[in-house]
Design a protein that fits this description.
Blueprint lengths: L5 H9 L2 H8 L23 E6 L18 H7 L1 E2 L1 E3 L5 E3 L2 E6 L5 E6 L13 H13 L12 E6 L2 E5 L7 H4 L6 E2 L20 E3 L9 E6 L13 E6 L3 H10 L4 E4 L4 H6 L3 E5 L2 E7 L13 H9 L3 H9 L3 E3 L23 H10 L7 E6 L7 H9 L4 E6 L5 H6 L5 E7 L3 H8 L14 H10 L4 H17 L3 E7 L1 E5 L3 E2 L15 E2 L2
Parallel strand pairs: 1-12, 17-18
Antiparallel strand pairs: 2-9, 3-4, 5-6, 6-8, 7-8, 10-11, 11-12, 13-21, 14-21, 15-19, 15-20, 16-20, 22-23
Helix pairs in contact: 1-9, 8-10, 14-15
Protein name: Solute-binding protein family 5 domain-containing protein
Pfam families: SBP_bac_5 (PF00496)
InterPro entries: Peptide/Ni-bd, SBP_5, SBP_5_dom
Length: about 525
């Protein structure tokens, strides 16, 4: 395979376009005509909201819930969280009516709202909160690591204290997400916990109108403490991993809202639908093994830098994302205090120089690795295979079932993979991605130079926090821990009867934000 100059690269990549995206997202697809019912989210007097999920939903076991992508929506319906994540990334009280951090951020005290009950009739109290947090911590789910060092103590019937051996400034944010789910302690050991959620959230699962792996129906929980915050009496979520099916269902009124792609924005807008834009993600390659534990070649910074230099980011932005977004080489979105505009051109597209770096690292002939074929993201596989092939790097595709994607990635078996990664605050991005215990640090790599910056990040505020985050960013770019390509504009679509708000770092609006359009 021969190298391509910038013009040839761009022309070749434009050929992938929408057709490749559709083909890549067809695994486990749901046809538009198969989505029974209609979306009636915003009509006058409407009581039903119909949403599409673009990923397979697996289990209602509280410990197995995840904090990313559209997988947050089913559990947000039936489980409440201790704290609430706001659209701008700030944290507010929720099931815990108040929370206080000590000065060194090693002790978080939560006062639980009185009078709440789970749908099995049991009380939501401090003991239930402790049981819920420990079920998440020990339940084997992908978010368990976010509570791994947390000790929970019941101070009294309505107060719990969470302590950590080191500062954990992001703990309140975690308690807004899957780690903050509260659920009936009886359900934690129930045989039907995968199919029968027992929470205290705004809705209850309607089992009779639910087909696991296809359609999930939720009806209002009349005993929910904050019922007025949710506009709909019934919510239907349809699993539709195929982008064509989602767009067709939106256009025909079968659903009210769905994640869409940059390739479909023209079609969606011309159909009278509403686009929500959110530019807080990066897309590119994870190089999650800088110590070479799984892929020995990645231990060499020259190899990681060479990989960064073999991708033409401008051509990728144009070809795969229709120019919607910005090029980058950083894991922080361009509005983040950690972002450094001066580093954007650190790895200019240069195949010849990349080959020299490979030779310097004694990998002139390249190496082989397993590239996971992630349903819905396979549109980038031809690009990855082609460009890495210019360095003699052979990407062997490994098929992964749709409902096993995150567990497979978190296992560390596939440290090089293509993804879209949410970016929120600098502390979030560091803690979720590069801290040794981070869920996305899939090989649990630790570096003392980076660790010093991570430790400071947990306790610093304001300008000092921003300066420290920028230092961490510069380290990650110079050491080529990742291979980001672009900051693509994320698109979510609603019909004209439905409104929603984008959330910092989330590819979908949170359930609470959906309302009938004014």
């Amino acid at each position: 395979m021969v190298g391509m100059d910038r013009r040839s690269f761009g022309k070749g990549m434009l050929g992938l376009g929408f057709g490749a995206l559709v083909a890549g997202s067809a695994v486990g697809c749901t046809s538009a005509t198969g989505a029974a019912g209609s979306g009636t989210g915003g009509t006058a007097g409407s009581k039903t909201l119909s949403l599409a999920l673009d990923m397979a939903y697996g289990s209602f076991d509280p410990a197995k819930q995840q904090s990313a992508f559209s997988l947050v929506l089913p559990w947000q319906a039936c489980f409440d969280t201790l704290l609430r994540y706001e659209p701008d990334g700030t944290v507010s009280p929720n099931a815990a009516e108040s929370y206080t951090f000590n000065d060194d951020k090693t002790e978080l005290t939560l006062v639980i709202r009185s009078g709440m009950r789970f749908t099995d009739g049991s009380a939501v109290d401090a003991a239930a909160v402790k049981a819920s947090l420990e079920h998440m911590k020990n339940g084997g789910g992908s978010d368990a690591g976010r509570l791994a060092d947390v000790t929970v103590t019941v101070k009294d019937a309505s107060t719990v204290v969470l302590t950590t051996p080191k500062p954990k400034g992001l703990l309140p944010t975690f308690l807004c997400l899957a780690p903050g789910i509260i659920s009936s302690p009886k359900s934690h050991t129930a045989k039907n916990r995968d199919t029968t959620p027992v929470g205290s959230g705004p809705y209850k699962l309607d089992a009779a109108a639910t087909t696991t792996g296809s359609t999930y129906t939720f009806v209002r929980n009349e005993d929910y403490w904050n019922k007025a915050a949710y506009a709909y009496d019934k919510i239907v979520m349809r699993q539709m991993t195929d982008i064509t099916a989602r767009v067709n269902a939106l256009k025909s009124g079968q659903i009210n809202a769905a994640p869409i792609s940059s390739q479909t924005t023209t079609e969606v807008q011309s159909s009278g639908l509403t686009l929500l834009k959110n530019e807080v993600n990066w897309a590119g390659l994870f190089l999650g093994d800088p110590e070479g534990k799984v892929i020995p070649a990645l231990k060499h910074v020259e190899v990681r830098r060479a990989i960064n230099m073999v991708f033409d980011r401008q051509a990728i932005l144009k070809a795969l994302f229709q120019g919607q977004g910005k090029v980058t080489n950083q894991i922080f979105h361009n509005g983040s205090p950690a972002y450094l505009a001066g580093l954007v051109d650190r790895y200019a597209y240069d195949v010849a120089k990349a080959k020299k770096l490979m030779k310097k690292a004694s990998y002139a002939d390249g190496f082989s690795f397993e590239l996971p074929a992630i349903p819905g993201l396979e549109f980038a596989t031809p690009l990855i295979t082609q460009q890495l092939g210019l360095l003699g790097i052979k990407a062997k595709q490994a098929k992964i079932a749709a409902n096993q994607v995150l567990p497979a990635l978190f296992s560390g078996k596939y440290p090089i993979f293509f993804t879209f990664m949410e970016s929120r605050t600098p502390l979030w991005d560091l803690v979720q991605t590069v801290a040794p215990e981070a869920v996305w640090n899939v090989t649990h790599t630790a570096d003392p130079r980076l660790q010093r910056l991570l430790d400071k990040a947990q306790v610093l505020d304001g300008a000092a926090a921003a300066e420290n985050a920028q230092a961490a960013n510069e380290f990650l770019v110079e050491q080529a821990w990742f291979c980001p390509w672009v900051l693509p504009t994320n698109f979510y679509a609603t019909d004209k009867t439905t409104s929603a708000r984008p959330y910092l770092g989330s590819v979908v609006p949170y359930l609470r934000s959906f309302k009938p359009a004014a």
